[in-house]
């Protein structure tokens, strides 16, 4: 297993085969800080894998010259979040890694980030994934995520502690029902039962759908409050989606909320799910886009509504060309 400069060994019980997978698309100016924070982890036995989604900004050259210890998986074009990550996840499974960390490229992590995640997941074999405490990079003590909740009864993903100052109020061990794709440690053996990310989602709510499947399969989701991450909120998604990103985000989030219900909600959950969706998503974002006079994004909401209701459901392997969404 490759190690990186500045690392030291920790307790032998944590010497698991682990890979940190980072999805990158034209994030050259973001990668350095993220990789530098991984280079000084107290847990040394891991590999770093960059899945590059067809970057043209010199990201690959930066990795070759500045970070030779990083393994690069270069894709020819932007495949989206779920399809590209699945390529990296498949490689991790084929190579026999025990754990895989999904981490945004617009983050940096504390020195004991990996050690704390691994400690948490080893507490129970039925923990399928563990998420860290995530802060806003612009306000290092303000919480972005301190665990999360989602219910097919309400159709409302919620980050605990959103925009609150961290006073330790979320540090007690409590189960979570929503893991975030911004940063999570996943048990590879669980993936063989749960499956990979649903590629029909392409981007947005793919982590919510994955969380539902983990729980349905009988795995727990855990929150490790001592594992810390700082997140430059939104920078990765805007770059990945490119021009017209707001409209694409509205289209995908609307469409995928419907797909989520069609794939997982029971008939008796649909009345409250649909009610929550209509009030908290359709009505709210319609008013917001009208207020901002963003009629392209407004139209995208209703295009997403139509497509979510009519498109055939595909369990895995479904993909869509990025250009088709613009």
Task: Describe the 3D structure.
With 326 residues, this protein is of the alpha/beta class. 38% of the residues lie in helices and 21% in strands. α8 (245-264) runs antiparallel to α9 (270-291) and α9 (270-291) packs antiparallel against α10. It is globular, with a radius of gyration of 19 Å.
Record keyword descriptors for this entry:
single chain; alpha/beta; Spore Coat Polysaccharide Biosynthesis Protein SpsA, Chain A; 2 domains; nine-stranded mixed sheet; two-stranded antiparallel sheet; 10 helices; 21% strand; disordered N terminus
Number of domains: 2
Provide the low-confidence segments as ranges. 3-13, 237-243, 317-326
CATH architecture descriptor text of the largest domain: Alpha-Beta Complex
C-alpha-based Rg, rounded: 19 Å
CATH topology of the largest domain: Spore Coat Polysaccharide Biosynthesis Protein SpsA, Chain A
Mean pLDDT: 90
Q: Biggest sheet: strands, sense, closure? A: 9 strands, mixed
Order of helices and strands: EHEHEHEEHEEEEEHHEHHHH
Question: What's the tally of helices?
Answer: 10
End-to-end distance, in Å?
A: 41 Å
CATH H-tier superfamily of the largest domain: Spore Coat Polysaccharide Biosynthesis Protein SpsA, Chain A
Shape: globular
* Number of strand segments: 11
Summing up helix and strand content along with how strands pair, one would put the structural category as alpha/beta
């Amino acid at each position: 297993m490759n190690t990186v400069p500045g690392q030291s060994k920790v307790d032998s019980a944590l010497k698991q085969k682990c890979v940190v997978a980072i999805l990158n698309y034209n994030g050259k100016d973001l990668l350095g800080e993220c990789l530098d924070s991984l280079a000084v982890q107290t847990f040394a036995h891991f590999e770093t894998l960059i899945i590059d989604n067809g970057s043209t900004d010199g990201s690959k050259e930066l990795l070759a010259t500045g970070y030779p210890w990083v393994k690069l998986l270069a894709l020819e074009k932007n495949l989206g979040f779920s399809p590209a990550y699945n390529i990296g996840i498949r490689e991790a499974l084929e190579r026999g890694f025990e754990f895989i960390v999904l981490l945004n490229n617009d983050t940096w992590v504390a020195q004991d980030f990996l050690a704390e995640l691994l400690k948490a997941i080893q507490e129970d074999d039925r923990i399928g994934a563990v998420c860290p405490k995530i802060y806003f990079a612009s306000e290092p003590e303000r919480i972005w995520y301190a665990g999360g909740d989602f219910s097919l009864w309400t159709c409302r993903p919620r980050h605990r502690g959103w925009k609150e100052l961290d006073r330790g109020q979320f540090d007690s061990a409590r189960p979570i029902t929503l893991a975030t794709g911004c940063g999570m440690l996943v048990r590879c053996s669980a993936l063989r039962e749960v499956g990979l990310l649903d590629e029909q989602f392409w981007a947005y709510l793919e982590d919510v759908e994955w969380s539902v499947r983990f729980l349905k399969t009988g795995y727990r989701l855990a929150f490790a409050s001592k594992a810390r991450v700082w997140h430059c909120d939104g920078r990765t998604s805007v770059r990945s989606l490119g021009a017209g990103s707001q409209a694409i985000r509205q289209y995908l989030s609307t469409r995928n909320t419907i797909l989520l219900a069609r794939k997982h909600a029971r008939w008796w959950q649909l009345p409250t799910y649909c009610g929550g969706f209509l009030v908290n998503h359709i009505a709210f974002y319609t008013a917001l886009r009208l207020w901002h006079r963003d009629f392209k994004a407004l139209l995208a909401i209703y295009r997403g509504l139509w497509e979510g209701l009519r498109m055939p459901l595909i369990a895995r392997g479904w993909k869509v060309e990025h250009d088709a969404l613009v």
